[in-house]
Amino acid sequence: MRLWSDRRLRLSLTGLGAQYLLALMAVGAFSVNTGNNLLYLVFSLMLGLFLVSGILSRRALQGLKVVDIEGGNLFARVRGGIRLRLLDQHRGRLRGLELHLGMDDTTVEPGFLGATRKDGDALAVLQARAGHRGWSRVRALELRTRFPFGLLEKSRFIALDEPLLVLPHPRTPPARPASWRGEGHRSLAQEGTSSPEGARPLRLGDAPGRVHWKRTAQRSQPWVRTFEEERPIGLHLRLDLTAWAPGRPFERELERLSGAVLQARLQKRESSLEVQSEEGLREVHGHAACWRALALAQATGTQEDGSEPAPLS
Predict the structure, then answer these.
(1) Do 196 and 238 belong to one domain?
(2) How many angstroms from the chain centroid is the CA of residue 16?
(3) pTM score > 0.85 for this model?
(4) Based on the domain organization, do 27 and 125 belong to the same domain?
(5) Is 3 helix (H, G, I), strand (E, B) or coil?
(6) Residue 270's closest CA among 237, 224, 306?
(7) Which domain holds residue 60?
(8) Side-by-side strand order, sheet with 183-188
(9) Where does the chain have alpha helices with state H?
(10) pLDDT tens figures, 118-154
(11) 71 and 1 housed in the same domain
């Protein structure tokens, strides 16, 4: 039952609170009709408990200020975390708050804030699922509490206008031939097994041909040679905005490139992105910079049949 509501505050009576209120009225009626002092005492205690519930829940909503909202790596159509940092002016106060964040075209699951730390810093992580890439805005934060007895629910609304960048959906890139136009692997060329790197003690499964005889004679135990291998040092991506028209094929290409950046990050490899636009050629380095460039990319071509453009040289 909603008792009172405006743009910033709302007061609702819970189911338990309605039952408690009916019991309170019944005890009050019996105490008036019978004149029993014990019933008057019970009525006074129940009324005091109801008032204390409202006062404490009101105090739990006060003294909180939103300091920062961080989206981190928030991908479209994938659950991700939004870090909400709050400042508590009444340090260490027990809160028992349910946090509801309003964001454009995004479903945000409620979070919970039990108590803040002694230094006044409070951090809550809310799980969100955005509908599209690009800029989105956080509109409002709602704080709800039934603390401490669950009789009344009070809500406080904090107006916000914070932008968050939603990254393209990280689609798993299919296997492509080496001449595929969108990406290429950069590797550090080395001599492979013909270039010894060092030596180590013999392990189970080592080939007899790798025995390091000189080191074995020096240490009086079997040692084997270790070798350098050719290893990738990065992933290079290319995107020509003038060759794509706005539409689903372009979005799928962005999602494929976003997935390639994610795989490179998981494999602890560097990534770079080369973007060709009407303003010229621009290259960015690093996973975060590549994702940001893909999230803000806008196709400027006129191709309408959805076919893929010719490979870049």
Answers:
(1) no
(2) 35
(3) no
(4) yes
(5) strand
(6) 237
(7) 1-166
(8) 183-188, 231-240, 270-277, 280-285
(9) 15-34, 37-61, 213-219, 248-266, 287-296
(10) 778 888 899 999 999 999 999 999 999 988 888 888 9
(11) yes
